[in-house]
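We close this part of the discussion by returning to an individual protein. Part of our work consisted of pairing the sequence of a single chain with a tokenised description of its backbone. The amino acid sequence and the backbone structure tokens for this protein are reproduced below.
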Amino acid sequence: MGWLCLLFLLFTTCQFNSTCSSSSNSSSSLSSGHLCHPHDSSALLQFKNSFSVDTSFDILTSFWRGEDCCTWFGVTCEKVTGHVIGLDLNFSLRGKIHSNSSLFFLRHLKRLDLSGNDFEGSPISSKFGGFVSMTHLDLSESNVTLDTLSLNRIVQNLTNLRELDLAEVDMSSVVPDFFKNLSSSLTTLRLSWCNLQGKFPESIFRLPNLRVLDLRGNENLTGSFPKSNWSSPLETLDLSYTRISVDWHHLTRNFKCLRDLYLRNCSFVGSYPLFLGNLTQIMWLDLSSNSFGGQIPWSFFLNLERLTQLYLDGNNYVGQFPEVESNSTGIASLYDFSKQLVGPIPRHLTILSLVGNQLNGTIPSWLGSLPSLEELYLESNQLSGNIIEFQSRSLILLYLSDNKLHGLIPRSIFELENLQYLDLSSNNLSGTVEFEKFSKLQSLSYLGLFSNHLSLSFNYLSNNSWPQLSTLALSSCNISEFPYFLRASPNLEMLNLSHNRIQADIPKWLLDFGKDSLKSLDLSHNSLTGNVGHLRWKNLQYLDLRNNSLQGELPIPSPSTVFFSISNNQLTGEIPPTICSLTRLEILDLSNNKLSGKIHQCIGNFSQSLSVLDLRNNKFHGMIPGTFSKGNILRNLDLNGNQLEGSLPQTLLTCRELEVLDLGNNKIHDTFPNWLESLPKLQVLILRSNKFYCEIGIPETKFPFLKLRIMDLSYNRFSGLLPTKYFEHLTAMINSQEHELKYMGEGYYQDSVAVAIKGNVIEMTKILTFFTAIDFSNNSFRGEIPNVIGKLKLLKGLNFSHNELTGTIPPSFGDMCNLEWLDLSSNRLFGDIPEELVNLTSLEKFNVSENRLVGPIPHGKQFDTFENDSYSGNVGLCGIPLAKICGPHQSPPSSFQQDGDLEHENGFDWKVVLMGYASGVVIGISVGYLVLSNRTPDWLVKVVGIK
């Protein structure tokens, strides 16, 4: 019955559609009494049979019956001859259009719409130029390509063409200059997202009848407006995301008929658009993402009498909204902070979007009284004060997230019965909110209240339901129970209850609800207990259960799952073999549990989709799977803190996207994996606390470890000389373009790693892209420290302690201007401490204890902050902070300690120093760089035990 209703709806729509309606020369396919030409009927059937059609929407099979093709769905015929002149086939066709297709037999076609199909990358044949009577051609979003030769024939032959829509047609090989040959009768040209590159012809802007020009999304398309004055009838112009030069002076002078103007992320030249000139007809204006700054020129925008939609997102606008004042005649107008008249209250506005600017002050009350306002986007600014009351009931979308708003949620919001999207998240709102208050918002589809100071209660809910609700984001809302009303939310697709106070087992009804609809579920950072049991959600893509107290065996979600994290729980047992069915997984995080057994070989087999595999801190044993296949996209492999043994599988070489490889704290027995040096994107290599042995040797490739920034080989059995040739090529530690506060990771997953920093092993839950460190401590390296290490000017930390190094400390260390900790303790170094080290003004931790150093300790800058334990065990050192005073001609002591006194110990024998040094010029990396952009340092950094 539902299928028949759909067909009836399509028939009804077609009767009112301009492409199906009759005119003086043609008849509707549904009302014509004239038989179509038999050749056309045969051509149509052959064309249809060359494609497969979605069976759930196979209109053609059902209604292309009978001898008269003029009665077929989507077909329009000429009255007298019966020739097919119109064809509308955007019905999910699938297949290729070949150059010998019977479509080209329909030579009388005037209108052709093949949009929205999947023609599998078919090239648009030059035979489309054979439709010489064509007035309307639409091939948009149909997965086809177009080359210059075919384009040239189409534009030269289709001299009657009035509408051409090639949106999302791949034209990467097309020379745009050929568009200058388009018919002068053209009224509509849509070329959005076509991969056009090169210079767009200026003559297009001069076409005498052109009303719509859409070039959006061609990021490599250049060009400019004609230099001389002209007059264009354009009503819609979209140059967003192109490199076409926008001269505001020419635009306002020559495009006098514009109603819709889209200039998002454009290349403006000349003066700042402070005036709109002759653009008095503008109804829709988008100037987003153009780095405009200063005060918003309200007077220019609000005096446009027809303006209904205004988008100024993603700029650098500052200041406050204008406020209402009445003049001597009692007429209310808007005035800026300097009491200058801005203009009338824009009662005609339906959409106002100011997302991602730097606006401050309060939200003005006049915004709440606009009678036509349907969509208000003010998120990601610095607005403060209370949320205004909304007198108008027209609002459909209200986005106020990521500001500094405080106080209670205003009562009027609960009365906006047309509201579909409400986002108040990431503010400072407070108070207890009974969820029952939202009961009038029956159209609500999205509700976001997370990251405020609200307390949400579900006490008074009885039979309340929100039938349209698809997204419910209630993270950090002080919720202590599962909202039972969810059972009556059949269309819920996304549920986020993370960072709350729910302390209970996951109820069975929650596992049953949304079996067909739920796509994203986040219950992380609660106190959930018990066994999860069998997961029944069929279409789930995102599942986050981390940081709870869940027990029992590992639950396996549906094969549709893309993200699955259940880290930091108390799961036990082996990984069920059913995990091999999750072939779409991109992120798998099972870390910090008590899982045991061997890692399934299939983990490597589905690495074609897997980007992150985090199994650290469990009890897995056996070998690392060697099934990583060629072409995989694995970016992060973290197996730290297990009981894995054997050697490294050389199939890791197939992981060409690998950025993080953490195999620390296992029982791996192997020589140094030189072959990893060829991985082009590897940035983090941690082999700490294993059984690696032998010398590291020399590189096997010309440019080894080009992007490596963190290298930890500590607590192994490496021997021989330090690998000078590797140090020479650590380019990412010598110079880097990474200076912004960015973290490693992707989308909803950020990489983390445990690194020894200044004596503590610290879990960095975010890794800055310019953090660098080398730790070769607790091995058996011998020989001198190479001077070349001084070239590593971006290095933050260097630890060579507990080895058998000899020689002197290289003076070149004074060139490592970013160094924050340096540990050379428990070696056999002799000579003095180079004065050049005083230049290390970022140095917070310095340890050269238990060596054979002599002479005066340098003083000044950071060296005046180090204490005795930095130098203990060096009987030949003197000066502050030691009690031993240096003589006028300080000389080495008569005897050194015997070698046996400094025998290498496989341990960490110097004092563990907690974070935060009272003295020091800079804030250390462990606090400064990691906490700089976050209010909660304990979320970013965690001190863990040293193994």
The first strand starts at residue 26 and ends at 27. DSSP finds twelve helices and 67 strands in the chain. The domain at 671-947 is CATH 3.80.10.10 (Leucine-rich repeat, LRR (right-handed beta-alpha superhelix)). The first helix runs from residue 2 to 16.
